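Lecture 7 notes: from sequence to structure.

We start with a single chain of 112 residues. Read the sequence below before looking at the structure.
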Amino acid sequence: MRDYHGGEIVLLQFPYGDASSGKRRPALVLLDTGDDDFVLARVTTQAYQTEFDVALAGWREAGLLSPSFVRVHKLATLEKSLTVRRLGKLNDSDWRAVQTAFQALAGLCRPG
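Now the structure, written as tokens:
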């Protein structure tokens, strides 16, 4: 079993909702606690639409082919076995921007 680190970009076979098929997509590793799963945020080339979408200034150095955005509010816990390969890693500035957006998102989670 591989270990991943927060800020890494991976290419994985992202399952569709019915889990019968999927598509290769990049994703950002947010958390790996050392078991068979990790927590990811979607990466897309679609221009951001919410305050929780982070534009990546260093998309090339992160191993991405096009200008991209991390959708911090689109999270998934997936099996590491779906990983096709590692693409790269966010630069410090982009990683801080993702962390800031994630903290803002977490601030919305309050008891009702």
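The beta strands are 8-15, 22-31, 37-44, 53-55, 69-79, 83-89. Keep this in mind for problem set 3.
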